[in-house]
């Protein structure tokens, strides 16, 4: 791309709205949602969905809670027509759910559209024709008046045929879209919408849906919001109109444009699951809805099992949700960065400590469990990960609550192994590395067996513990014995008595792994070399807490006296 080529582009649209109010507004309630996932052509699938796939996705949309679903463009293909007839003929549309159908403002297409709706309980007929100056010039070579005439003729035909359908018990609502609204002069957009409204004659109980599509994103989201506020304030009989949004994503700002459009006065939003659609796609309703949820606003849709919704979507459409896609991607609740991992772990720990329902965890916008994800996937380990992430995995997945001073040593060792492999480590691999290096190391010293005897303290006399242990030292058997104020102290003294004590014990902690009577105990011991000051942690695991401590001491000794 050459810099001189920018000369062929120009800013396309500006709105004079000196008293705009939308920047100070907040989204406090959900809009009316309309899914357009099932519209043929709109989805631009390499292999269009057949009737069976459409049925699966349709039922999923109902479970999510959509009350308005654009089920197709019945004049576009026989598959679309058959699918809509199946829904109606087999009584598959729940009460309170409206089937929306799309048609261009062309006579034969409108007739076919109404044929598809016979017997429907609640229908929305979505009429559109393109209105932008560019389309008028390049595509149609028509004047404003000629474009308005197309809209008028279509609206009159829809009105007449709706009257016939309503006489047979169908409730019909009308939606009109000035296609390419965001690139249409505002005065002309208003004029053509008023012309359609005059023919439809909406009421407070049967409003005209004025859908204002950002068919191509020529402008920044704030310009679209200005356009929506201008239309919302200038259209007549506002209480008889629903302002609807339909954004695309050419500039990657479909979500932002919709959110600002809602702030600017829109009542309704059209979009798809995960943003599927022509070119760069339609609005991603999942993201907008969960953004509201993250701010404490009831979005009115149920994404409690988002992974399953994603699976169905991918199976039905053949599309794939990228791993970094907001909320639904494989990696969005995953942290590889060490500082992120540490902050997440601290946030999780604090919530448990405080027993609070309030969500305040760094780097995580919402609680993953609210949308059917688990904490197990939050922290994953590669060579860039930190000590907190490894400690989190070992604690959450395997029950090892490592002492804070131990995190760095374990994290460095595991990350070095990940670096050697050049890839992410699975939790099972992390645990295997940790166990092999830190838990029960048996060389150069192995604790073959031991026997403890003790005298209980009497008054001012401290408790005396005697240990008799059989060790393998570099393969040679050695029997040692000593006294101490506890089993660990006694074994330390035994090492000293046999010229093996080149260390001092500086930390010892223990805890139960799991719950119940059959749990193991984990003991963590840190030794410091007397000559070099080098420190080494070891871990012992046993059903007996004393045995766990002794194993931890031997493991730490072995790590201190190895190259590590």
In short:
This protein has 16 helices and 14 strands.
- Helix and strand string, N-terminal first? EHEHEHEHHEHEHEHEHHHHHHEEEHEEEH
Number of strands: 14
From the spread of the alpha carbons, the general shape counts as elongated
Output the CATH topology of the largest domain. Answer: TIM Barrel
Number of domains: 3
CATH domain class of the largest domain: Alpha Beta
- Beta-strand residue fraction: 15-25%
Q: Biggest sheet: strands, sense, closure?
A: 8 strands, parallel, barrel
Structural class assignment: alpha/beta
Give the uncertain stretches in residue-range form: none
Query: Could you tell me the radius of gyration in angstroms?
Result: 34 Å
Figure out the total of helices.
Answer: 16
Give the proportion of residues in helices. 25-40%
Averaged pLDDT: 91
Q: What topology, given as strand order, has the largest sheet?
A: 1-2-3-4-5-6-7-8
Supply the CATH architecture of the largest domain: Alpha-Beta Barrel
CATH superfamily assignment of the largest domain? Aldolase class I
Report on this model:
With 564 residues, the chain is of the alpha/beta class. It has 16 helices and 14 strands. The strands form 3 sheets. An 8-stranded parallel β-barrel has the order 1-2-3-4-5-6-7-8, surrounded by 6 helices. A 3-stranded antiparallel β-sheet has the order 9-10-11, with helices on one face. A 3-stranded antiparallel β-sheet has the order 12-13-14. The relative contact order is 0.07.
């Amino acid at each position: 791309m050459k810099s001189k080529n920018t000369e062929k582009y120009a800013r396309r649209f500006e709105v004079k709205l000196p008293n705009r109010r939308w920047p100070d507004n907040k989204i406090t309630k959900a809009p009316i949602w309309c899914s357009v996932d099932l519209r043929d052509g709109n989805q631009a699938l390499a292999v269009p969905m057949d009737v069976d796939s459409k049925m699966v996705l349709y039922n999923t949309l109902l479970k999510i809670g959509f009350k308005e679903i654009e089920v197709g463009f019945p004049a576009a293909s026989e598959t679309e027509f058959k699918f809509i007839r199946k829904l109606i003929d087999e009584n598959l549309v729940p009460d309170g759910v409206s089937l929306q159908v799309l048609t261009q403002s062309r006579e034969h297409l409108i007739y076919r559209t109404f044929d598809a709706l016979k017997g429907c309980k609640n229908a929305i007929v979505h009429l559109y024709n393109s209105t932008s100056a560019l389309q008028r010039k390049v595509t149609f070579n028509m004047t404003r008046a000629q474009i308005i005439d197309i809209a008028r003729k279509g609206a009159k035909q829809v009105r007449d045929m709706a009257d016939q359908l309503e006489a047979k018990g169908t409730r019909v609502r009308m939606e009109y879209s000035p296609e390419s609204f965001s690139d249409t002069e505002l005065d002309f957009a208003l004029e053509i919408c008023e012309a359609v409204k005059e023919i439809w004659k909406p009421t407070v109980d049967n409003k005209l849906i004025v859908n204002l599509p950002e068919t191509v994103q020529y402008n920044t989201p704030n310009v679209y919001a200005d356009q929506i506020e201008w239309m919302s304030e200038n259209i007549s009989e506002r209480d008889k109109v629903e302002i609807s949004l339909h954004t695309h994503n050419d500039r990657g700002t479909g979500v932002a444009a919709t959110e600002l459009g809602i702030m600017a006065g829109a009542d309704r939003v059209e979009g798809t699951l995960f943003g599927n659609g022509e070119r760069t796609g339609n609005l991603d309703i999942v993201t907008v809805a969960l953004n509201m949820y993250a701010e404490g606003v009831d979005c009115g849709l149920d994404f409690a099992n988002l992974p399953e919704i994603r699976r169905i979507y991918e199976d039905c459409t053949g599309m794939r949700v990228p791993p970094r896609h907001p909320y639904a991607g494989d990696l969005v609740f995953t942290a590889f960065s060490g500082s992120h991992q540490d902050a997440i772990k601290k946030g999780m720990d604090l919530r448990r400590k405080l027993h609070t329902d309030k969500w305040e965890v760094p780097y995580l916008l919402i609680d993953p469990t609210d949308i059917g994800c688990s904490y197990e996937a939050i922290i994953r380990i590669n060579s860039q990960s930190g000590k907190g992430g490894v400690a989190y995995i070992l604690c959450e997945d395997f029950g090892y609550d490592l002492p804070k001073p131990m995190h760095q040593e374990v994290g460095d060792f595991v990350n070095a192994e990940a670096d050697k492999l050049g890839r992410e480590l699975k939790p099972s691999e992390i645990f295997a590395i940790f166990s092999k290096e830190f838990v029960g190391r048996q060389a150069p010293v192995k604790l073959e067996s031991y026997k403890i005897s003790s005298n209980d303290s009497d008054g001012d006399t401290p408790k005396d513990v005697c240990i008799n242990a059989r060790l393998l030292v570099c393969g040679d058997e050695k029997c040692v014995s000593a006294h101490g104020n506890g089993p660990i102290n006694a074994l330390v003294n035994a090492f000293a008595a046999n010229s093996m004590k080149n260390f001092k014990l500086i930390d010892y902690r223990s805890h139960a792994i799991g719950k119940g009577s059959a749990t193991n105990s984990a003991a963590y011991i840190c030794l410091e070399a007397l000559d070099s000051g080098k420190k080494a942690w070891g871990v012992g695991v046993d059903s007996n807490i004393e045995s766990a401590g002794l194993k931890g001491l031997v493991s730490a000794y072995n790590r201190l006296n190895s190259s590590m």
